[in-house]
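Hi U.,

Before I forget, here's the chain from the pilot set. I'm dumping it here mostly so it's searchable later in email.
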Amino acid sequence: MSNLSEGGMAIWCPELQQLGTTVGFSFELPFAGVIQGRGEVTWANSEGLVGVKFHFLAEGAYQQLNAWLDRRMNV
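Structure:
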């Protein structure tokens, strides 16, 4: 992962992903737990970066993600 926000993330993906593809994901945030969900590929570039817009996060994940992002902003 190269970027993370409340609405999505940018990830390194060795295989070219088609725009509009639905992807499942799971990742762990330090001191915040595991985030699981589904999203849509909204952009991809020739360097292997892929943008994923969140469509669904598992129960409690939005709160965990927002709390983690708030802590990062206040550092």
